[in-house]
Amino acid sequence: MPQTVDRKTVRSWSGELDALGERIAPRFARSEVRERAQAYLRGLLATVERKNSWQLAEAAGDATPYGLQHLLGRANWDADELRDDLREYVLERLGDQRAVLVVDETGFLKKGTESVGVKRQYTGTAGKTENCQVGVFLCYASRNRGEAFIDRELYLPEEWARDQERRQRTAVPQEIGMRTKSELAKEMLGRALEAGVKAAWVVADSVYGDSRRLGMFLEESEQPYVLAVSGKAYVWAGFRQHRVSTVLESLRQGDPALEEAGGGWQRLSAGDGSKGRRLYDWLRLPLNPPLQEGFERWLLVRRSIEEPDELGAYTVFAPEATTLDTLAKAAGSRWRVERGFEEAKGEVGLSHYEVRSWHGWYRHVTLALLAHAFLAAIRARGQDIEASQQKGALKKEGTDSSSSSSSSLLAFKRKRGLSSN
User: Fold this and answer.
1) What is the pTM of this model?
2) What would the pLDDT profile of 8-44 be if each residue is shown by its tens digit?
3) Which of 27, 102, 295, 315 could crosslink 337 through cysteines, CB 3.0-4.6 Å?
4) Radius of gyration of the chain (CA)
């Protein structure tokens, strides 16, 4: 056993995993399915290099993967009920009134054409158009306790939605039609808000920010947001719409009236990165006020320090008197979801599945997100213990303590000798 992990710590982690298994047990009516689900969860958390059904079965001591394949394909249980357990678990372990909800998508590269929703489409995973599935995810990022996912939806392209033969072959439910990525985001955010999830901000990139309907939904819910928008989007100021690309070009030309209306550029941090503070120049332009009292709308603009012509824009719905510094940090919090994807794919096999059906995708992905949430929970607990010990040591020395930022799951595991990398 690595010297960095004592027996008491290991027992606490084991107890946490057992408690999680008991928590989800009611979702599986049959005992053998319940045991396979818990074995699958343990396998995702193990140091198995490739977390497909064969290697997970071997880790569980099974001669064949058929039991685990039955769990993902034909067994009687509801992945959406497990998703609700996942959300409650994340809120209990990472809950923070200042948390941010991040919407983003990720691609799952595929070689064939049989997996549900697969097609040649752009994915940021590869940075180009590839044969892949695309999932839209909702990440809960607490301020200091890490991040974990609380919802997921598979994007079904239009050609799939209309092809009855492919739908039947992959068991796509009849009620599922073509839904845009922003519509999937709205569904997930609606479920979260209805379940009582509290967040300081909702953030997303321009795939979602360009959809005015998503912004309107959040405003009706009085949920603050900072949504990136592309140059083709329009915003209302005064009695007419303004194309965002036109506004940005005027700022590139140094329009003094616009800069004055925005209060002038301010150099602010979008949060800490791997190389220190991520500094940009920021300003915000007032937009027509919303119907909701106590809130304001803004067009937030970010300018690169090294490349001043490189501008990014966000539409903002925020409480009155929100500072520009607060908006800059909210906009910069979107990177947290990228860390979450990297961890979930690298640590718990989010992308290692071999299922082709609709239900198989949701079942594997939900179990993988639950495994990732478990790691986030024990990391948060470990940070609490370390912070308490550090505070006690500093108090004995008569010095002051400062809060530490959350580290990645990989760093957490390496520090304790748990990573195979």
Assistant:
1) 0.90
2) 666 677 888 999 999 999 999 999 999 999 999 999 9
3) 102
4) 23
